[in-house]
Design a protein that fits this description.
Length: 381
Amino acid sequence: MAYYSIFPEKDATIYSHPNRTGLNTGRDEILELLEEKDSGKEIYYPSRFLIKFKNTEIKDIIENKLNGNDFNTHLEVFSAEHKSLHANHIVQVYAVSQSWDEGTGRFHNNPTSSNGVTWDMRTDTGSSARSIWATSSFATNSTGSCCDFMPISGGGTWWTGTNFVAETSFSNADNLDLDVNVTDLVKFFSASYYQGATYPTGIENEGFIIKKPIATECDGSASFGELQYYSVDTHTIYPPKLTFKWDDSSYSIGSGTVLSSSLFLALNNNQDIFQRKSKQRFRLTTRKRFPDRTFVTSSNYLDTQYLPTTSYYSLRDATTEEIIIPFDTSYTKLSADGEGMYFDLWMEGLQPERYYKLQFRVDSNEGINIYDEDYYFKVVR
């Protein structure tokens, strides 16, 4: 499978507002980027949020699934309800440089819960000896930042350098889901992928911090609106995910016939139900929908027939029609061997207990053709 997603082990929003610097939101269903007004002053205080994915899962993909292929990695965070948005937005992602605890708090808890990460604190030891975010004397090649008007320092720490920030910009008329290329950050989690001397042993994976640029956060005089996203604790199908993409295709057809129009596609080995801890190879039978009339002594169907190299698969959620894996001309190409066309899917990269729908696309001189033959399957635990 050239797309493989993993889901967070923890996430939380941290708030710089004077009333919320000690607020833990580790169990909230929503992550927020907002500027919240102080009721007594004309000052707007920003929030940030943190997300961490298990290092064991990241290492497993890099070491056991990529087979040495280069890859791209995208952090995807899905929109919930946005409010009073400014026309344009910039969102930055950094690699966190200190450890932190998720906690069990919620935004509306009364009294406020502070047993995990907050604006000023990063861990919860179960005693009074909680650890604060560094606000000075940062580790080499790391930093943190606060605005002058903020009542308490903190807000996280992160690694610095050209390759240590990933950024996306969008307008309020765009798709407001976050889809940020964090390939460089993830590669730093594995020293074998870094070819420089500044970080010779890589960095510890402490997750990502998502925030607005300092210029926006420290404006303080206005709100850019509320950007809200689903957290790992959402009761929807939209938790954040870290998606790895790579080209695993191989195309070798020998003397087979390549078809490009009036096609019939059949999925040979769809078992309908697959265990999550499995890798499945799907095979396609390809033939002309209306074969040419010829006089031969053997069946036309004995000749192995193929789709062109510009053929792709896609995966949708069968219930919501949400695109899980798009037609990606770089990373979802169909493969071919002596038996015909095929592609591989790692079921562990999909959410279990859901039905999925496969679709196919063929690009040729006649244009782009989409084939939807209602091929469904379910992933179970």
